[in-house]
């Protein structure tokens, strides 16, 4: 958890914005009604309060109202206006940013085809290709699959990439 966050009983690994840091899981789900889930290819910013740079939007899904149905053993049941949607540009999924209907940032989630909070059917997308969410879960504390030194990083020409331990 980030030092500026208050301890929550459900301890999310998602990156909450300061405005929602003390919200319950049910309050966060309610805030997403009519909001958006936007996918990017870069590493997630250090906090959800930082802007996303160096990445175009890969795809955007709109949450229905309510944004979530009754959870199952497999995880949450997000309700989208359309799923799949068409990819906006070419890239590999890195994370997703969820916002309210008025555009206020709620949280950043891990996203991709593997063990992520938002599991996608595809590894990457291109313009017009289908992007489909197949599962959604709120990981427990420490559940973010990337190492902390990857946060807010950007590949740069002439610099080595991080090495796996």
UniProtKB/TrEMBL annotation:
It comes from the Bacteria. This is Uncharacterized protein. It comes from Azorhizobium caulinodans (strain ATCC 43989 / DSM 5975 / JCM 20966 / LMG 6465 / NBRC 14845 / NCIMB 13405 / ORS 571).
């Amino acid at each position: 958890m980030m030092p500026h966050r208050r301890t929550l009983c459900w301890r999310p690994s998602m990156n909450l914005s300061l405005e929602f840091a003390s919200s319950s899981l049910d309050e966060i789900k309610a805030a997403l009604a009519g909001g958006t889930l936007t996918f990017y290819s870069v590493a997630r910013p250090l906090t959800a309060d930082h802007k996303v740079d160096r990445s175009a939007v890969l795809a955007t899904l709109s949450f229905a109202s309510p944004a979530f149905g009754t959870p199952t053993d497999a995880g949450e049941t997000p309700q989208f206006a359309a799923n799949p949607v068409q990819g906006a540009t070419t890239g590999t999924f890195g994370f997703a940013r969820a916002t309210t209907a008025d555009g206020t940032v709620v949280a950043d989630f891990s996203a991709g085809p593997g063990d992520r909070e938002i599991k996608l059917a595809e590894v990457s997308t291109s313009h017009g290709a289908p992007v489909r969410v197949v599962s959604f879960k709120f990981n427990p504390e420490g559940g973010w699959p990337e190492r902390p030194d990857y946060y807010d990083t950007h590949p740069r020409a002439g610099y080595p990439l991080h090495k796996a331990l």
